[in-house]
Design brief:
single chain; 12 helices; 27% helix; disordered C terminus; binds coenzyme A
Length: 404
């Protein structure tokens, strides 16, 4: 297909996908021991049964790097073929540098532009749409879009209205330029700042820098007005998805599978009802991971494809909402062989992926006190600090060169 001036239209196809979930499971029964809640309340109000918790030596960058390398493995390219890395997160390793820069080094890439995307739980979809725009503009050939979150370190485990909802994990896709039809189609994104203080993390930014006082007030934890957020989510997820589908020249009945943000089963049921679709068109894995914010859509997408829920030629809509309020949806005509992703977990092992640490800086134990028993004996971060000399990036792990 050509554009108005006769040039072939560059399209963005999903060629790779991967995900990473930390090993430690936090069940509803575990939470019953921390706050006044019950497994029954959590399951019926949210659909969540358990979520994952990152270990002390894991970070947003390390999880993102594993998911990213798995997506690159699925795509059958080398890490250095990636020319843009977009990492969506609201829980970066540091305020600066970007977590995307750390992931670039950890995956053994030397040539990509890398930056973070911050749109809370919609971040991955915003990153996906940005990657599509870069590809269509001819600015990138292979883009790695990562959603990675380590929310368990930003939750108040005395606040039952938030701590039950969120978990850790990472997912990623590779988008590749192609002149072939299919790939990413219609995009819709919204930002509604009247919801700015409905989900927020008050302290740590320039308005309220971190201090003993902000910590004493618990302002370094996620806060949320659950009811208001719920109302926004049910309204916006359906309208945002519908707009993306219409911009693709399709109707909701043409969509084979929806990959909705995994926040709450009741929100997803409301979206299905709003679009007049059966629930079996909605992919669900929130029972096992809870809400992993920007990681939720790419984890769900990778699992849906690996489980055989997507076939070549299917129309898939990814849709998310989050703090801001933000929402985003992209409809995709699937063109990759779903079987390609199934070997990625074995090919890329988390223990082989390393994020370089600063020298002469001893991190505090990052595990929240409330989770210390669950995570075993709390101790220092167990990666040796003198592992890498400054200025000598560590690329020498077995997956730095993933074979084509
Ligand atoms: C948080 C959420 C599950 C709460 O469900 P809800 O049905 O709206 O419940 P409410 O907030 O009305 O609270 C009902 C009662 O349950 C209580 N409650 C809240 N959390 C509880 C918990 N974990 N266990 C037991 N009871 C709880 C409340 O205190 C309230 O008690 P009260 O009636 O005595 O005051 C729901 O509002 C939600 O999912 N909102 C969207 C959140 C979201 O998706 N955020 C992420 C956006 S990306």
């Amino acid at each position: 297909m050509n554009d108005a001036s006769g040039r072939p239209i560059r399209r963005a196809h999903v060629t790779g996908w991967g995900r990473y979930a930390p090993a430690q499971v936090l069940t509803n029964a575990d939470l019953e021991k921390m706050v006044d809640t019950s497994d029954e309340w959590i399951r019926t109000r949210t659909g969540i049964r358990e979520r994952r918790v990152a270990a002390a030596n894991e970070t947003t960058a390390s999880m993102g790097a594993v998911a990213g390398l798995r997506a690159i493995h699925t795509a059958g390219i080398a890490p250095d073929d990636i020319d843009l890395i977009l990492l969506a997160t609201l829980t970066p390793d540091y305020w600066m540098p970007s977590t995307a820069a750390l992931v670039k080094e950890a995956i053994g890439n030397t040539r990509a532009t890398a930056f973070d995307v911050m749109a809370a739980c919609s971040g991955f979809v915003y990153g996906f749409a940005t990657a599509q725009a870069y590809i269509q503009a001819g600015l990138a050939k292979h883009v790695l879009v990562v959603g990675s979150e380590l929310l368990t370190r930003f939750l108040d485990y005395t606040d039952r209205s938030t701590c039950i909802l969120f978990g850790d994990g990472a997912g990623a896709v590779v988008l590749s330029a192609s002149d072939e039809p299919g790939g990413a189609l219609g995009v819709e994104m919204t930002t509604e700042p009247q919801g700015a203080y409905m989900i927020w993390l008050p302290a740590g930014g320039s308005k309220s820098p971190p201090s003993a006082e902000t910590i004493a007030r618990g302002e370094h934890y996620v806060r949320m007005e659950g009811n208001q957020t719920y109302r926004f989510a049910t309204k916006t997820m359906a309208t945002t998805a519908l707009e993306s589908i219409r911009r693709s020249g399709l109707e909701p009945a043409d969509i084979d599978l929806f990959i909705p943000h995994q926040a709450n089963i009741r929100i997803i049921e409301a979206v299905a009802k709003g679009l007049d679709l059966p629930m079996d068109k909605m992919f669900i894995n929130l029972d096992r991971y809870g809400n992993t914010s920007a990681a939720s859509v790419p984890i769900a997408l990778a699992e849906a494809v690996n489980e055989g829920r997507v076939e070549i030629g299917d129309n898939v809509t990814i849709v998310a909402f989050g703090a801001g309020f933000t929402s985003g949806a992209v409809t995709i005509e699937w063109t990759a062989d779903p079987a390609r992703g199934r070997s990625a977990d074995d090919a890329v092992r988390p223990e082989d992926v390393r994020v370089r640490l600063p020298v002469d800086w001893d991190s505090v134990d990052p595990i929240p006190d409330a989770l210390a028993d669950l995570m075993g004996q709390p101790g220092p971060v167990d990666v040796p600090l003198d592992d890498v000399a400054p200025g000598e990036p560590e690329h020498a792990h077995p997956h730095a060169e993933v074979p084509a």
